[in-house]
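User: Some background: our group keeps a shared notebook of sequences we're curious about, and every so often someone picks one and asks for a predicted structure to add to the entry. Today it's my turn. The entry only has the sequence so far, pasted here. Could you supply the structure so I can complete it?
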Amino acid sequence: MKKGIKFGRKKIPIDENFKAVYMKWKQGNITAVKAMELVAMKNNTFYRRVKEYESIWEYFKNSLDNLLIPPFRGGWAKTPI
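Assistant: Of course. Here's the predicted structure to add to the notebook entry:
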């Protein structure tokens, strides 16, 4: 990548449409083939984006879980003010 030249195709982003279609697919309301049609992706791209989306979701879920752990064994009710 000398001189700022980028090679290859532009990455198809995970947008709101993808998220909505992903949820329908995961809930079993539509097939994977239908989901691919709705987001206009080929199967390898679709599954790659699914993997990315799930890893991002898992990261944030774990980060949130770590933030919600009570500061000590007594729980939140006994936290000093």
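Suggested note for the entry: DSSP finds three helices and no strands in the chain. The chain has a mean pLDDT of 80.
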